[in-house]
């Protein structure tokens, strides 16, 4: 049962909701990685490098914007997203060299 933060009356209830959300976030990260792997296939066929700096900048800018729109720290999430993107590029590079 999904609860709103204001519906939680104990730390156990809050922690259960945070754990549920964490699981959903990792499901989304796994889905995102499936797209990254597919991108490597398409990039190989189109002879596109794994690292496309303009796209990296765009993705990080988008992350910062999404964070700010939701009242989150854009600097924190921008740095986080930059690490995420760099890890994705590393995966793509390893797949492209196969």
From TrEMBL:
Enzyme Commission code: 5.4.99.5
Signal peptide limits: none
Keyword NADP recorded: no
Keyword terms: Isomerase
InterPro entries named among the record's database cross-references: Chorismate_II_sf, Chorismate_mutase-related, CM_dom_sf, CM_II_prokaryot, Isochorismate_pyruvate-lyase
Residue ranges constituting the Chorismate mutase domain according to the UniProt record: 5-96
GO BP term, pick one: chorismate metabolic process
A GO molecular-function descriptor: carbon-oxygen lyase activity
Keyword Isomerase: yes
PANTHER family (alphabetical): CHORISMATE MUTASE
Protein name according to UniProt: chorismate mutase
Biological source species: Aurantimonas marianensis
Taxon lineage: Bacteria, Pseudomonadati, Pseudomonadota, Alphaproteobacteria, Hyphomicrobiales
């Amino acid at each position: 049962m999904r609860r709103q933060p204001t519906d939680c009356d104990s730390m156990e209830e809050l922690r259960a909701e945070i754990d549920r959300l964490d699981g959903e976030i990792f499901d989304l990260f796994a889905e995102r990685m499936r797209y990254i792997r597919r991108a490597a296939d398409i990039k190989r066929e189109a002879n596109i490098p794994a690292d496309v700096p303009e796209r990296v900048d765009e993705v990080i800018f988008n992350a910062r914007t999404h964070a700010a729109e939701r009242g989150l720290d854009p600097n924190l999430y921008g740095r986080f997203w930059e690490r995420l993107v760099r890890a994705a590029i590393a995966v793509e590079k390893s797949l492209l060299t196969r």
